[in-house]
Please model this.
Amino acid sequence: MKSKLSMALLGMTCLLFIRLAIAQDQHHHSPDGTHDDHSMSGMEMPNDSSSSNPAGEQELNAATRLMTSHHMDMGPHMKMTELRKPQPGDQERAKLVVEQARRVMEKYQDYHAALNDGFKIFLPNVPQHQYHFTNYWYGFEAGFRFNPEHPTSLLYDKTPDGYKLAGVMYTAPAKAGVSELNVRIPLSIAQWHEHVNFCFPPKGRESEAWQKSPKFGMAGSISTREACEEAGGKFVPLLFGWMVHVYPNDKDVWAMG
Model:
């Protein structure tokens, strides 16, 4: 009984810390999209509660479709870090991250091993070419420090008989500055990205996000709050936080997605 009570209290404490981290992250994220270069906090990670929240589910589904393309469209809905001039040691640091990511992948070639170790399939019922198997504890950890052996997500391509591991995804807090991102992975080698400025269609008009030359959604022409509100949509300035994908066994190791 005492053990169960302790576990319950631990769980409630962890949830409280996660909520505080998310609230702090949203509070400090400036309206113009800039980041405090010296701030650190937890990042907001998606959770299963979206299944009971139609608006949240719409946002997550759209984000998932965007993120599952191996080479994502770099339009007004993606914010990327600029490539920096190479500095001494950058190649070595990046190579070390790739080697650690490769070791992680060796452990999880069988997706059942990932599930057994606490990774959960993000939106398993949404058809995708590539699925994010996400470890939310690792995502929480990434809000405070970078551990290449603990990627937030494992990236599995869908196959007829299951899943094939393709790469890993690391995350950082939404408000992390470029200096912090550069410490994690050199910005002369990799470009971190955020998904920004989405206008989701009004209720009952969701299909408009997938029509040719859409106004709404991940490929929509609307990318400002004013235009979105005028069109009757819901504006979401930021989905999740910073992300970077690593494909250790591909020619394009640091592909956008």
In short: Residues 2-27+38-246 form one domain. The two ends are 46 Å apart (CA to CA). The chain has one domain: 2-27+38-246.
